[in-house]
Write a structure and sequence with these properties.
alpha/beta; TIM Barrel; eight-stranded parallel beta sheet; 8 strands; 352 residues
Length: 352
């Protein structure tokens, strides 16, 4: 998640109407389609149909813990069930959820983690949701969620003789139990190898490890697409082209011209595009609702499905108000508050 300057197209007063309870569809009708639609579609956009254009969902971090390790070690299925149920209540058209997994939790207790993951997938399925499991992470805030660091790759990927041999020892069992055991599972929409891997200081090493992991997933028989969630832009898209069966992007403050470039790039290779994160945060409900309108509107018009970050207020970094922890520049990106209430104005998501 990168902090960028807001570039909304509706006025603060109009968004305050949403927060005050005005029907979101009426507000959008009043401000016009051009509030989130800029320029005519390119020929590539007109001819190409993105297989993931109709994905509507959310990232989900349960409310009860702050790190990936603690979420999966202290797994609380009733929280998953209740909070995903609230998601379907407030946003009945959602069809997908993105889970962030924890390799660290698996390393400590493979059997327990495997059982917890299976339960979490089953809960999502019971709510009519496909799952995008994120296998590794390279985003870091406060508290640290947990993830892959350069030091870890140097130790477990480069060292111990033949390059990659240690990865087969430490990472392969994880991928076998998560990806291999669900290789034909139609409850899984796609595998996200790593969240924002460009945050690692050594990109060449990270890419080598990701390529090794991508091949491992394919060798395990994954029938679902395998990809990597990047911040976006043509440079990063090109960097992950050979390990992306579709393109997973994080277009915060999604600009129409950048989305057109992405669609053109993907359509030339006949690959889909899915925004696995969008909608930057704010503590101001009205300002956040404006960001949701802008991001989701531009993505919908570009024919790109989207999954804002994130469904529920959580102790995880960037997903809570001040009483629940340290605030970053992302403030809070939740749609449903800790008490289970819908954040004011955020039902505007249903218009897209």
């Amino acid at each position: 998640m990168n902090n960028k300057q807001v570039s909304g197209n509706i006025t603060r007063r109009e968004v305050l109407k949403i927060s005050a309870g005005t029907i979101a569809g009426t507000v959008i009708a009043n401000i016009g389609v051009n509030a989130f639609a800029a320029e005519p579609a390119t020929k590539a956009m007109q001819a190409w149909v993105n297989p993931y254009h109709d994905i509507r969902g959310f990232n989900y971090q349960p409310s009860y813990e702050a790190t990936g390790y603690s979420i999966w070690r202290q797994f609380r299925p009733e929280k998953f069930d209740t909070e995903l149920g609230l998601g379907k209540k407030y946003f009945p058209k959602i069809n997908t959820v993105r889970y962030w997994l924890s390799f660290d939790a698996f390393a400590v207790d493979p059997l327990g983690f495997t059982e917890h993951f299976e339960t979490a997938v089953d809960i999502a399925n019971n709510h009519g949701l496909k799952v995008v499991p994120t296998l590794f992470n390279n985003w870091h805030s406060v508290p640290g969620f947990g993830g892959i660091a350069e030091e870890m790759l140097n130790y477990w990927f480069v060292s111990y003789g033949k390059r990659g041999e240690a990865a087969n020892y430490v990472f392969q069992p994880y991928l076998e139990k998560v990806v291999g055991d669900h290789a034909k599972d139609n409850r899984i929409l796609a595998w996200d190898l790593c969240n924002e891997p460009h945050n690692n200081g050594n990109w060449s090493l990270t890419l080598e490890w990701l390529t090794h992991s991508y091949k491992m997933c394919k060798d395990l028989g994954a029938s679902q697409p395998v990809s990597v969630s990047i911040q976006g832009g043509l440079e990063q898209l090109r960097a992950v082209k050979t390990i992306s069966d579709l393109y997973l992007i994080h277009p915060y403050f999604a600009k129409p011209e950048v989305l057109r470039e992405t669609v053109d790039f993907a359509s030339q290779q006949n690959k889909g595009v899915l925004a696995t994160e969008c909608c930057w945060g704010s503590l101001d409900d009205a300002e956040r609702a404006q960001i949701v309108v802008s991001d989701c509107g531009n993505l919908a018009r570009a024919g790109i499905g989207f999954m804002p970050h994130a469904l529920h207020e959580s102790l995880v970094g960037d997903l809570h108000r001040a009483q629940f922890g340290v605030l970053s520049s992302a403030s809070s990106m939740h749609f449903i508050a800790m008490d289970g209430s819908l954040r004011p104005g955020h039902d505007v998501f249903n218009n897209f």
